[in-house]
Write a structure and sequence with these properties.
It contains 6 helices and 7 strands; from the N terminus they run ααββαββαβααββ. With 209 residues, it is α/β, with parallel strands linked by helices. It has one domain (4-206): 3-Layer(aba) Sandwich (Rossmann fold), CATH 3.40.50.150.
Length: 209
């Protein structure tokens, strides 16, 4: 896949550099904003499950034991931490270096695709959703936990002020709207839940049969 402006490569390098500190940095944000979100998403996964932009494997603890897991992560350094986590948990999973914008799987390969706190950093989040839908089987589900553009004007103004800084420092986009991409891709939204002044979104959507 083309990488306009080298954005994807810059994201990969950033997460390779920050892999060792990632869990420590993300832990406070999860406690403050996303508590229970990973459990909510993972508990709904069924069958053959693909997790995109899987990071350090923080979701591994929460998947049902009966699912068959494939994890894809852009950063080899992040993925290595996920491998250690999987071994320590005794979790069976196929862990691969890969790009969520250009997934190395045939059409209709998975029953569930999961993304948690991922679409905010993928350079082309719309493309990542399209790829997720492509590899979903008919009737399969896309499950998301993301921070998103708030519908509340004062909060949204603050996001606009902070967004250039968060993108510069962490490739973290504050104004994204995954729901729009999910609907444009033709998925049927089964559950949509927003919290924390509209900043946090939990979403479950089904690919029509």
């Amino acid at each position: 896949m083309r990488d306009p402006g080298g954005q994807t490569e810059r994201v990969r390098r950033h997460y390779d550099r920050s892999a060792e500190s990632y869990d420590r940095i993300i832990a406070w944000a999860e406690r403050a904003f996303f508590g229970g979100g990973r459990e909510w998403v993972c508990s709904r996964a069924r069958g053959e499950v693909l997790e995109i932009a899987a990071g350090t494997g923080r979701n591994l603890l929460f998947y049902p034991v009966q699912v068959r897991l494939t994890l894809v992560e852009l950063s080899p350094e992040m993925l290595e931490i996920a491998r250690h986590r999987a071994r320590n948990l005794g979790a069976e999973a196929d862990l691969r270096v890969g790009d969520a914008q250009d997934l190395p799987f045939p059409d209709a390969s998975f029953d569930t695709v999961v993304a948690t706190l991922a679409l905010c950093t993928i350079p082309d989040d719309r493309r990542a959703v399209i790829e997720a839908v492509r590899v979903l089987r008919p009737g399969g589900r896309l499950l998301l936990l993301e921070h998103v553009r708030s519908p509340l004007l004062p909060v949204r103004i603050l996001q606009r002020v902070l967004n250039p800084l968060t993108v510069l420092l962490g490739h973290d986009h504050l104004l994204r709207e995954p729901l729009r991409h999910v609907q444009d891709a033709g998925l049927v939204v089964e559950h949509l839940e927003r919290s924390k002044w509209g900043l946090v979104e939990r979403l479950a959507a089904r690919k029509p049969s």
